[in-house]
Automatic annotation (TrEMBL):
Pfam families: RTA1. This is Protein RTM1. Keywords: Membrane, Transmembrane, Transmembrane helix. The chain crosses the membrane at residues 20-40, 52-70, 82-101, 122-139, 159-181, 201-218, 238-262. GO terms for cellular component: membrane. Signal peptide: none annotated. It is a multi-pass membrane protein. InterPro entries: RTA1 (IPR007568). It is found in: Membrane.
Length: 278
């Protein structure tokens, strides 16, 4: 049950979190995500990488804002701050999946492979998974918004849980397509000065989607166990299975930067078909 809106006092955080948010951990988290945001923004811009990669920087910004609100909640928590923090930290990582979906679509497009299988067409992979992620995002956002109402709290929790569960299904489907593209030699392309671009790019996608899957399983378990369940009321679990996991994803995106394994905005590409002609 959602806590009463009329509880006051410095310890009000206990009514929402069931603990006082740890200030040092929240500050460290904010700094880490702020650094990732600045770094990725500059790298994408200076390297003239594909514009869709700015989603990474945007996600980092949303995480930074979420932890800024969490810091504020350490001093005083009300329903608005709690819901705002929850929405920023719950929804922001969904955008990372969009980057992975788009990247696999780009591999298919750059390879120039023609297929009759609709689920392997560039347009389907890009737009189906994009739409599915937005749908799951909308369900989670709507569910989170409904939780601001005492009467609709349980309904909102169920809707959020459905959105998270659907996302796990979409992740699994995406994983199958990624494995197929990885193992099929015809899905090959060439980027200047980047040998084995596809292999390194796929590695980045594998690691990050596994991390996102772990985080989503944690969130499903959290909402399934309820607002006052063991998982939702354990702060270390949040920092291990959400904060640390998403930060690890950003670290992978930074080290194995997607932009260096794809053509720049003004760079010509060579597909497998082009290479065979030479």
């Amino acid at each position: 049950m959602i806590p009463s809106l009329y509880n006051t006092g410095a310890s009000q955080a206990l009514f929402f979190f069931h603990y006082i948010p740890n200030l040092p951990l929240a500050i460290v988290s904010l700094c880490v995500y702020a650094i990732f945001t600045i770094y990725l923004t500059l790298r994408i811009s200076l390297s003239k990488s594909a514009n869709y990669l700015y989603i990474l920087a945007f996600t980092g910004l949303m995480e930074t804002i979420g932890y800024a609100i969490r810091i504020a909640c350490h001093y005083f928590t009300d329903l608005g701050r709690y819901i705002g923090m929850t929405l920023f930290l719950l929804l922001a990582p969904n955008a990372l999946a969009l980057v992975n979906y788009k990247t696999v679509g780009e591999i298919i497009r750059l390879s120039g492979v023609q297929t009759n299988r609709f689920y392997l067409k560039h347009s389907f992979v890009t737009w189906f998974f994009f739409a599915s992620d937005i749908f799951a995002f909308a369900l989670q956002g709507a569910g989170g918004g409904m939780q601001t109402s005492t009467d609709l709290y349980q309904t909102g929790r169920v809707i959020t849980l459905i959105g998270l569960a659907l996302q796990l299904v979409f992740f699994a489907c995406y994983g199958c397509i990624t494995i197929y593209v990885h193992r099929s030699p015809e899905y090959q392309y060439h980027v200047a000065h980047q040998p084995n671009a596809k292999r390194r790019l796929i590695f980045c996608l594998y690691v990050t989607i596994i991390l996102l899957y772990i985080r989503s399983i944690y969130r499903v378990a959290e909402y399934a166990s309820g607002y006052d369940g063991v998982i939702a009321t354990t702060e270390w679990a949040f920092y291990v299975f959400d904060t640390l996991v998403i930060a690890a994803s950003f670290a992978v995106y930074s080290v194995f930067f997607i932009g260096q394994y794809l053509p720049k905005r003004d760079q010509a590409i060579e597909s497998r078909t082009d290479l065979e002609k030479e």
